[in-house]
Amino acid sequence: MRYDVTVxxxxxxxxxxxxxADKEGAKVLLIERERKLGGILKQCIHDGFGLMTFGEKLSxxxxxxxxxxxxxxxxxxxxLLTFVTKIKKVKNEFVIYYVNREGAGHIRTKALVLATGCxxxxxxxxxxxxxxxxxxxxxxxxxxxxxxxxxxxxKRCVILGSGDIGLIMARRxxxxxxxxxxVYEAKPTPSGLTRNIHQxxxxxxxxxxxxxxxxxxxxxxxxxxxxVMKVDENMEPIPGTxxxxxxxxxxxxxxxxxxxxxxxxxDVPIDExxxxxxxxxxxxxxxxxxxxxxxxxxxxxxxxxxTENAWAxxxxxxxxxxxxxxxxxxxxxxxxxxxxxxxxxxxxxLNNVTMYFRSAREMRNAKLKIKIxxxxxxxxxxxxxxxxxxERLQIDFSGFSIRKNQTVKIIxxxx
Amino acid sequence: xxxxVCIVCPNGCQLQVDDEGNxxxxxxxxxxxxxxEEMTCPKRTVCSTVATIFEDFPVLPVRTSxxxxxxxxxxxxxxxxxxxxxxxxxxxxxxxxxxxxxxxDLISTSDxxxxxxxxxxxxxxxxxxx
Lengths: 415, 130
Hints:
The complex is a heterodimer of chains A (415) and B (130). Chain A is an alpha/beta fold and 415 residues long. Helices cover 19% and strands 37% of the residues of chain A. In chain A, the strands form seven sheets. In chain A, strands 1, 2, 5, 6, 7, 8 and 20 form a seven-stranded mixed sheet that branches. The radius of gyration of chain A is 22 Å and the shape is globular. The mean pLDDT of chain A is 95. Chain B is of the alpha+beta class. In chain B, strand 5 and strand 6 form a beta hairpin.
């Protein structure tokens, strides 16, 4: 079979990308490895999704099902319970090899949208010492148990990391009768959104310990306790501050990493800051014909941004034709930790470029500057910028007469 | 003077309420309303799950259609523990009307009737998440 666009991943990014490509008249295939569409939103039963897209506060399933309904009513072909094993570029198209219950197969596609989402960091990646008992979960796994299976994974637990899923699980486990002894965060500031600190922790009197981390776990078959320590400004544990806490669960909310195994297998260049593919303003990676959307591109804090970016990626993928691109770099400068897109294609429209960026640290009365080869072409003031809260900006670059080999830099300064 | 962080939207405005009830720091009207309510009768939307009899859909996500008084959250969780869904509901269907005499209903937030997988026959979910 031949398709114009194949979207890999049936979560919010994949759903939006497939719908957008279909709307442009492309023949679209959507591949999902699970048996249901919706991705991680299936288990995000809390509300707060869709304020930008629908002007309503929806739960995760409500948000994703609005898109699933549209996909089901469209002509988009779907392959569920289908796992992509390999992608090869052959001349001007891609051959996608997959396995599913019917066996192994392959299809051909002109353009590819990678909407593979992200993964959680695990205990291994945060270097906790000790035994390997059960009872240590990532926040997403705990969420899967509670919200999809209806099982309680812990009775009395400690949460390491103040990412949003960790905060949301602190509230969820408390509501379901577990005791959440505290959220421990190695950094001096919380990683999650401020509103989640309030509605998930303060509302339920769950303590938040900043500049603290879990250093050891105890227990043979099942976790019996953890050791926590204070950390210094370099996040190194301070000797003498050890404290042992009896608990049967440790929940990790220590960050998300874009999932790009397929992109890497295709030698798609990856941005070391976002851990997602380097892309231009049309969300095409540096590899021709490969587009990227959602959390596979960079970890978003709001699904509304995922939908926005994926919709654009899907739309552009439908119109993909091999053409020469003139790519210039967009770099995060002082005060910013990353910027998406990382490239501008001077041969594509520049008049309505959406930029997503994060500040490197909390700043009040911040001033954003966009510089082209050192010359400031745009300024904007921000009351406050915080690393957990992504900023979005729409810029008309067409009037700046940008030339080949120039560099765009985005800077945040405290006023 | 009391300080809050607005939880209405992701902006998370820092709100200050003085002794006369005047609200400062809100970027929109919803923030002013939130701070006023937070001082008098704090309310929250509650999201949770209820049990079902279906193997492929063991719990159904639900939420309150509107905010309910914060002090009723414990009572609501007890109510939810007693519910078991015996027929496949669609998204938005009401499970309990007028929770605690308020305007808020308990509604389903997921559609259990999707049959797009497996040609219409719902099967037990053994695919895991991997």
